[in-house]
Structures
1.
Amino acid sequence: MPATKQTFQHPLFGPIIVTRNPRARRIIMRARPDAIYITLPTAARESDIERALEQHGGKLKELRQNIRPAFIDKNFTIETRHFKLCIKEDSPDGIRITGKEGAYTIHCTRDFDYSGEGQPILENAAKMALRHCASLLLPKRLKELAGTHGFTFSCCSVRDSHSRWGSCSSRGSINLSIYLLLLPEELIDYVLLHELCHTVEMSHSERFWSLLDRHTAPAHAKALRNCLKDYKVGLFPK
Ligand SMILES: [Zn+2]
């Protein structure tokens, strides 16, 4: 039997999307920006949904409201230690980016359409600002850390990679993602030290992790790696 989907508006908890799935063993509830999603076994009753919502609906509604939608509008801002970005509707025509030293503004027209085709235009503008800032700061920070921790690398390039925070080739050339700038300070350094350790140990062996541990001390390398798992590589890391 295929999974069936049902959508309804709950008077207390807002939009709910229920999927009955024959492979589901128990009730699973998730908060997403558009609704609370419930997956449940085919045999579950309506009263099971109501009971689950009574128990967890309040918390899920709160979670849902705190999820930041992946959308850029005139109120969009990024504010991290090294990178700040905001939008101003003060351009006479078209899109412009201004800024330096980590604080940038995307200027668009008053009647800019933020939906549809407007989104990729704004995402590109934000990426350009990030790339500019990242290419100024990340290679410099990598060099600093290499100096302090006694590593050498052949070159460093900064890319808008969505798949990984960083990588290191067997020749010691290090690639860093521009989105690193959106991470907390200690996680930026963790990724940079991680790649620097690969100039000594290529694989993620025991030796690699104990080497990295020595350089991230007193923090444990694997604890930092776990923190990093909370972030996605991209413009909307959380
Ligand atoms: Zn690695």
2.
Amino acid sequence: MSKNLNARRLNMQALAAEGAALVEITPLPNMERLAQELHGLEPDSAINWRASAELRPRSGADDDVWLRLEAKASLPLTCQRCMAAVATAVEIDQWYRFVATEDIAMAEDDQSEEDLLVMEPQFDLLAVLEDELLMALPLVPMHETCPVSPVFSAGEAELASQEDAEPHPFAALAQLKKPK
Ligand SMILES: [Zn+2]
């Protein structure tokens, strides 16, 4: 799409009528809630995402507006074992249907496989994307194998190498304690 659209103020009805896809790259610092969850932030970090909207006819009513939102990102989270950054792949592929009011959304939510969104004349699509990314984050991010050893095992390793080089102090102590 060549027009310069603001993803925080979208006319979803018009987007769906056009049937075109919106392909965007949003810098991570523009998503403050998500940025807070990250282990530091590279200045050029960004989320690649794609939104395509379409109209689907509904008998006896106006066409429904449907939206497909896709995003892929590798986000630096904090490993809960070693506290270093762990690159975490996050993927979103979600369908939504727009409804007119919050009441309709509440009433129809249980029986709908797709997620429901309440239509607004200037729809904030980035907020929806950010919500989805936050929900897609693992509860306990962790390396499969941590790159650095935790502190306690580093200490053990040091002790082990000393053992090779010189007699263990406790071994000498044991010798002293031995009954004669
Ligand atoms: Zn780790």
3.
Amino acid sequence: MALVAQLSDPHLRDDGADPFHDPAEALLLAFTQIATMDAKPDAIVLTGDIIDRSAKGYAHALPLLRQAPVPLWPMPGNHDDPVGFRIAFDGWADFASDHLSYIAQIDDVQLIALDSTLPNGCPGVDWSRLNWLEGIIGHSQRPSLLALHHPPFATGAPHLDNPGFQNADALLHLVKGSQVCRVIAGHSHRAIQTIWGGCLSSTASAIGHGLSLSLCGTQRHKPVQMAPAFDLHAIGPEDLVSHQITLGPESEETAPIRSAYQGNDRQVVSEG
Ligand SMILES: [Fe+2]
């Protein structure tokens, strides 16, 4: 069984103009929670929007991410810069040549990290990515976790569903009946669950700000204050359970480790 922590959408800024809480602090608090769990996750999957569009690059994000207490698998979102991402995370994963998808092993589960931001910035997968995925799925004998930034399923929220996920039907065709047993995504900044492709499929709450919800589409979605949270997925032949962990005030148990992280953080910042 693999135990996977899914963190999403920190939107790390480098100008200090966060609309609500500091996502860097929330990220480090999530690392602290993960480090102190009695059953420590095998890995962290970070499902995109690592930086905010306002950020000039990844120099402010990398020192934070290197403090992850377990292996961290970074994925790009629509706020990330594909060229900068590939350079910044060179060596973190074996990226495909013409998109930022990759596979990795997490215990006995195969992670399929599928880059869902098309070159034009829209959500979806093109034929290059579908062909890549078909090759992966066709050879996989292990239960697989499919991770994307954009949810490939309809959410019922117009601001997420329009424009829709390009080639969602072709992706669904590949996933159905495959070894993919769980689908996770970000982008929504909200917790959403559904069944898609025969799999439990979900989006995670954000480490960064929340987003408002309008199911009728009469109100434009906007950043809102929301407690940062992350998901914990147990994935195995006989286990398929997810928990949402909301990041609240630190406990006495986590305070010493939190202090250690703050010390590292200050040291990194002082290095410029
Ligand atoms: Fe986002």
4.
Amino acid sequence: MYEFLMTPEQIEHRDNAREFAKSIDRQYLLDMDADKIKYPKEFIKEAARRGLVGIRVPKKYGGRGMHWADEVISLEEIAVNGYIMSCTYGVTGCLVPEAIMFSGTEEQKMKYLPGICKAEIFAAECLTEPRGGSDFFGATTTAVQDGDDFILNGQKRFIVGGEGADIFLVYAKTNPEGGPQNSMTCFIVERDMGVKTEYQYGLMGCRGGGTARLVFDNVRVPKENVLGGVNNAYPTFYQMMIPERFGTAAMTIGAARPALEIATDYTMKRKAFGKTINRFQGVSFKIAEAAIKLDACRSVIYTTAQAVDSGKCEPEYVRRLCSQSKKFVTESCWDVANLSMQCMGGIGYTDVYPIEKIVRDLRLATIWTGTSEIMLNIVQHEWYTERREELKNLSKRNSECDCINAFADGEKIYE
Ligand SMILES: Cc1cc2nc3c(=O)[nH]c(=O)nc-3n(C[C@H](O)[C@H](O)[C@H](O)COP(=O)(O)OP(=O)(O)OC[C@H]3O[C@@H](n4cnc5c(N)ncnc54)[C@H](O)[C@@H]3O)c2cc1C
């Protein structure tokens, strides 16, 4: 599927990721869902051994030096093993490296990226606080300079890899009086500096990803671990919207795909009223609906990847594309999982088939890395800005007057 858009190298890359996904023992997945495995280190290590961690990291730093168009292919394949597999894999191998590649010094890149790509170092990203996640710039975690160090205090919650990761990308207030552009600093905090993992949540799904609360109690971080400059977290945060929103959208497709495959197979075998249930349009149309949604998601993801890779688009436009990808894909994939479950009848609601787990896992997709509501906020903002620009430039036909009574007296009243 979609091979017509792939180069031979991308097909090879896809097959490599697909083989890896096939090789994972089912017991490993069950143990993660049962919280017996806290964080899938072995899984990520094997992915690294197969050259699947650090896809876009330059070769010089131990990565593959590929592009988003390649990364989305492997993200989809790896997520077939469960949404949390791709979340942990994506956070350590795609999200955190993006920040280090974009804002890191040469020393920081050399120190962390090769280890991440070999899965000798596992990484996590810490934005959300008990106080809230959507209002990111209202963060209350603080860092105060003390000689050559910063003293970090505060808490972050729901951190994937909170249990299991070795380094944490932590955003903290260093200039509480400043605005969004100059109040926060991003730090690379090593676990050994004194990070405490205090609490593991009982999660509805997505278990086994080490999702935990982190406590920073007078943690001393050397100034060499400031990422991107003091009071200058904003550009890093802005850039991270790409892997966070777009990357997580790409993986959601892979997490939803098995639900549709399982339901399709079931409807070709299960009989009611003397025929297989795929002969009832009430069933087969749901499968068709889900197939359309999944393919539409892929179209959105593949074109957005091209937009990002091209480097030709304005950052604001990229921000809109990534945000709308996140909203559209995560909500469509949620529909795919539910349509699939519906086609299975009662057995879909049991653990005889993995669809109930897929539904539990996928519920996270519209919440984490920015909720659907926050995505809408961004999209409406960028869209209105674009439209105002168009109106200013008179760059397109204005269709408003293409109707009989366009100039009717006293009708176009706006106040
Ligand atoms: C399993 C799991 C894993 C996670 N992993 C990570 C991680 O690795 N790192 C990390 O930093 N975070 C992580 N998160 C946190 C996640 O990103 C946040 O939960 C999310 O951003 C929402 O923040 P919140 O929970 O504080 O909700 P709030 O910000 O309190 O929002 C609550 C509700 O209000 C709505 N809302 C808030 N503001 C507005 C507004 N302006 N307009 C309209 N609606 C609004 C939201 O959409 C939401 O529906 C994870 C969460 C979970 C559950």
